[in-house]
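Chain A, query sequence.
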Amino acid sequence: MSTPWLVVIDPQRVFAAAESPWASPMFGSIVEPIRELAATHRTIVTRWVPAAGPERTGSWAAYFEAWPFADRPASDPLFDLVPEVADLAAEGTVDATTFGKWPALERITGPAPELLLTGVATDCCVISTALAAADAGATVRVVAQACGGSTPENHAKALDVMALYGPQITVV
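Chain A, predicted structure.
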């Protein structure tokens, strides 16, 4: 197998800022493990951005009704990368309007890569990316200490679910 890709999922202000309803209380503790991994791996940084109003279909309309604070343009500073890891995206970010980032990542990594997943939130965008990537044939390792959940309990639950998918997904 080739050198794994490090994927840093959504290290954005919306998930880091204490005043954000989506802030992960674990965010601060994942920055250093991510930086350590980035020092030795090819790195891709993703961003979740909201789809424009008319592009929202199905459950996304209800989603933004439930979370109106996030109903902003993708260029809003709320969706910027946090300064602590912004330099990891020197070549740009992979932006997606979905929780799972796999389809967008595959265009860079090619089919069936080896991925090291990090970032936020373990119980949303990380798990959505991991399951889709594994289903498509990627070998996925989720780096537990470099992921942050919406709560420590939800983080642990998401890791437990992903561990059920071995050997396609391994929690390390």
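The helical segments are 13-16, 27-38, 59-66, 102-109, 122-135, 152-163. The longest strand covers residues 139-148.
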